[in-house]
Amino acid sequence: MTVLDGEPGAVHGRVAPQALNDAMARAWETISERPLFTDPYARLFVNAAGPHELPATPEHQRSLIDSAAARTKWFDDYFLTSSSSGVSQVVILAAGLDARPWRLPWLSDTVIYEVDQPEVLEFKQRILAESGVSAAAKYVPVPVDLRDDWPKALTANGFDHTEPTAWAAEGLLPFLTDETQEQLLERIELYSARGSRIAVEVRGDAYSDLSCWLCTRHWEVSSTSAADLMSRYHRTATPGIDEPVAHSVFVDGRKL
Ligand code: SAM
């Protein structure tokens, strides 16, 4: 399972491989028989990035695609619910090559800040600009390392911490040390007005700590395990494949 079509692009090796894996999974899901969502842009990223393969065996690849699809669908639903409840400021931390600003039906007053490494956001913007597509909301890229002072960069780009925000951290925490994860959550809490929302993918053994942490700071929290999501979306875990995302828990909350 490799590129879907097209010529190898010039950016090969510069975009985070994990972001490309997720884009490739979304591209395959999009052309599957019964997709949970469609992401027409994932294919553009994969083709432009050049030769890149999902790791491991076909069974493992199926498992990766199903897990990534269930996760994407859960985060999509989270954003649509936040939007319909009136939250018009969105911050996607480690957005990678996900194209939600372009593919979800946002209300026209929505502002979406995407935070990731500069080369990832530059690549994404370039490919989408070459394709002539426009975001369905006001799109603000914030190229900054999440180990640095990213709230300062967000604020410099127009983020307003007095307004409710819908935050998301999907597929991010494994890349950060425990200390940086704590700092990230503390910053989200500090910059969240009442009515803000949060959605985080967390390791199964860490979700109760995160839920408690949020509850004591007046967030109303609920959670769904990856296994429950797979079952909800009629996807089955591949026997013998121990996929890390299969142990994830998806935590969402609302600040009271
Ligand atoms: N959320 C996206 C998705 O589901 O497609 C991307 C997930 S990908 C597994 C992880 C992303 O985290 C990559 O895009 C990578 O560039 C970003 N990332 C990892 N460490 C980072 C850091 N310290 N600062 C900014 N971005 C980071």
UniProtKB/TrEMBL annotation:
GO terms for molecular function: methyltransferase activity. It comes from the Bacteria. Its EC number is 2.1.1.-. Gene3D superfamilies: Vaccinia Virus protein VP39 (3.40.50.150). Keywords: Methyltransferase, S-adenosyl-L-methionine, Transferase. InterPro entries: Ppm1/Ppm2/Tcmp (IPR007213), SAM-dependent_MTases_sf (IPR029063), SAM_mthyl_Trfase_ML2640-like (IPR011610). GO terms for biological process: methylation. Exhibits S-adenosyl-L-methionine-dependent methyltransferase activity. PANTHER family: S-ADENOSYL-L-METHIONINE-DEPENDENT METHYLTRANSFERASE YKTD-RELATED (PTHR43619), S-ADENOSYL-L-METHIONINE-DEPENDENT METHYLTRANSFERASES SUPERFAMILY PROTEIN (PTHR43619:SF2). Belongs to the UPF0677 family. This is S-adenosyl-L-methionine-dependent methyltransferase. It comes from Mycolicibacterium aurum (Mycobacterium aurum).
